[in-house]
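Worked example (supplementary).
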Amino acid sequence: MDNLFALNIIHRPELSPEYAERALGGRKDVRDESLDIFLFQQSAAHENGLKTTIQITYASLFSDKIVEIAKEHHGIYGDEIGLSLLGLPCKQFREKYKTEDFCIWMFDEETKKQIVDDCFSLFFEKFGFYPESTGSYFLDAFTINYIKKKYPSVKCAVATCWEEGPKAYHTCNNSWYTFMDGGPWNPWIPSKVNSHCPASGKEDDSGIVAIPHLSRDLMACFDGNGSNFGTHPQNVLRGMIYYKDGDSVEYPYLYNLIDEYRHLAKYNDGYCYNMMFVGPGWLNRAGRWEAPYELLAKSYRDGMKYYGKLKKEGKCVDMTMSEFADFYRERHPDYRRGECALWKDILYGSDKEYFWYADPALRCCLDFNQGGAMIDLRPYIARIPQETGIGTDSVWDASYPYLIQANYRAGYFTHYAGAGTVKSCKVHYHGQSADLCLCRTMASFRRTEGGVEITADPVTVLLDGLAIVIRSVFFFEDGTGKVLTRREIVNDLHGEEVEFEEYFTGGFGTTEYQPDMTKLTLGVGKEEFPFTYHGKKLSGKGTAHVSIPDVYTRVEMGGEADLCEVEEGIAFSPVYHLRASKKITKGAFETWLRLQREN
Amino acid sequence: MAQAAKGKLNFRCPRCFMRDIDIDMFFDADKKEYYCLRCNFRGTEEEVEALNEQVKEKYGRLRERVTDFGADNRPPVFAPHRRGEQ
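After joint prediction of all chains, the assembly is encoded as:
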């Protein structure tokens, strides 16, 4: 199959952009300026031969001029006219709903339905048809299911901002309540139960193809503010990722980021994807993030120019959202196949490398700067039936829970006591130990029968004068929730015996702070005990396991082990540990990790 | 003394930006300086711009363009970026 780089360009006209209204201090000419911004964005795309999806906002449905322009651009350029559930705020909305809220997933269920019906019926009134695409920063399963049932023409939606959670909140001076961590970074077909999870099959298929709000840097956004590192030229300016050369401002990172997304075709059967969706508030005349309007506009034009150049060279296919949905379904007939990204640092100069994997059963990240340690894990197989919005237990937090998140919950390094969430391996010899987290390496990708295999370059551990050369191999089974790990001894140890201890230190939650753990049950084989924060251990020959009812998940670890062990954490270190150990003189130690749904 | 206001651009506090916090500064027209509501930074526009250049030091590849993503287990190959080139 030929490589294909699919591109969505999305523009939304807003007559009361939520950013600009405040940033401009309620200036009277915001309305005209917003229309100008939309026209500027459209012309930047069209001048470079690119078609767009116009996502009409609620506020702009009250503007005959915008309706007329959208129809005109659809006729001339083939732009799709979709409907955004962003851009709700306007006089009519506030008068009708008596609220300053503007995020569709944060309303109560009845109001969500009312707003959807209001927007869709007004859209129909203005255009004479229902849209095929919609979106928001985040769309929960409830809203997607309602839209699909009532307006079956919809087949594509913007449904998340990748890794926009606690990091974005902190960056915005603890004021930006868009908690939606834990979803896929690239398009997916959402589950009917939880929109973060890729559908496991036809019966779980919500009927739409979801796309992320931006194509984000899969390394920079894991540690830093997501809104600095995406295919969004003004995000790049916000991150100050530019330099001045005379009177010109240059941002090669934007092009490097687009190119790295193109490179991901190598890991996904020749398919790769990008989207650019810049709201009008980012292009206002007053300037933004230290950047004057002229620079904001230049960067947007340059972004479009680069995509246009790729298109002219036959390296990019621009699609509307609904065209993309059709293309995606044709290209992804198998729901279980994992989306993969072996991601290299293109910004800091660290030579770090992550491997991201997502399928209907799990999302995971391995860090090869830490020997292939698992630094993020989300149990999609649990299909956690999350509800968000007023009237639920989670008014604003729509993030999909982690079991491991090494930045929120420490990972390898802690301050003198306790342990952080990470999965890695310790090697023991003559009373000395080393953790593969401290072995920096890189890895190679291979798609195999029923999954993908990631092989790390061998690393050397030195213990009591003995050099042990170890190669780590990770195998992800498509859609089963099972990850196999093989630690191979590559050199001759001359009969010396070393012990491998594969370990999983986990927690659960959506933020840096661990919820209560007393509902957990730990066990080895058939023996079990409840979590009580006393550091209790249990070991034996069976499989190590933990049940976490709060996230409907059971984690099991086993393999060719001499011994498996579980240990509960203490109050100062609220985590749980699963371990599998084996002593060998040569060959390899194989273990498996399995996630399961548990009610 | 009148109340402070936003400056001509929304300059963020460079000290807070260094710790991944975006917080707009306000301008004290009497002292002709920006100041941060959260941390203890205050400074002129020139001082802010100088610190903003320091912020960029963490981006080791700021002025470079990837020419080849190379083998999986090798870092990308970079070349100096030239003005105006995409």
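Two points are worth noting when inspecting this output. The mean pLDDT of chain A is 95. Chain A touches chain B through 52 residues (CB under 8 Å).
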